[in-house]
Write a structure and sequence with these properties.
The chain is α+β, with helices and mostly antiparallel strands. Helices cover about 15% and strands about 50% of the residues.
Length: about 130
């Protein structure tokens, strides 16, 4: 479940809750409370597409403090099996800044990479 993320990575993502729908199907939304640079923020994301064949999930941020700098912010995650119980996880950020002075989302990218590493480190412990 999506809410398990906060159990595995509470120091970075203290809360994940379904906002509308089941948080697992296209069109459903989830609220993520996260801590970035020592400050707690939130964002609400909507699942735009799920491609089970290509193991790809696409989400769009629709609300939250982070959107003060961006017109659009999308995430795509793809899992690519590599055999021997190993997989490659490919993450892509697509964004449009609100203006030229808005920062690139480097802090969010670094945060996401750190959270993903924390989650992967927990995988052997998940049953």
């Amino acid at each position: 479940m999506l809410s398990d993320i906060s159990k595995l990575c509470p120091h970075k993502i203290p809360s994940v809750v379904a906002h509308q729908g089941d948080s697992l199907s296209v069109g459903s939304t989830s609220r993520f409370d996260f801590i970035i640079d020592g400050k707690q923020e939130y964002m609400i994301e909507r699942i735009e597409s799920i491609d089970e064949k290509n193991m790809t999930l696409r989400r769009t941020v629709i609300d939250g403090e982070i959107m003060k700098n961006y017109k659009t912010l999308n995430f795509q995650v793809q899992v690519i099996p590599k055999g021997n119980d190993a997989s490659l996880v490919k993450c892509c950020f697509e964004y449009e800044k609100i203006n030229q002075a808005a920062p690139e989302p480097i802090k969010l990218l670094n945060f996401s990479l750190g959270a993903l590493k924390d989650l992967v480190a927990q995988l052997p412990n998940v049953n």
